[in-house]
Hints:
little secondary structure
Amino acid sequence: MRFDIKNRLTGEVQFTAEIQCESDESYHIQLRLAVKYAIESQANLEGAFLEGAFLEGVYLVGADLEGADLTGAYLVGADLRRANLIGANLEGADLRGVY
Length: 99
């Protein structure tokens, strides 16, 4: 199925991912799969709306997340080495064990 990641400021589609899940799967799981696909595709997620994303243990090394909205994201154990988080909103994000 297709899942659109939108820009937090404009609301425009920034990246469209082809994810493997049921259409009735929770939004947060769909978003997790879309972010993983985007990172694997080396997509630019600068300014992306990723509020509440469930990204536990996700490999985000070198990801461009500048200005992204990660409010309330669950990033426990995620690998954020060399990720660009300049201006990203991490308010309320769970960052336990982040590398």
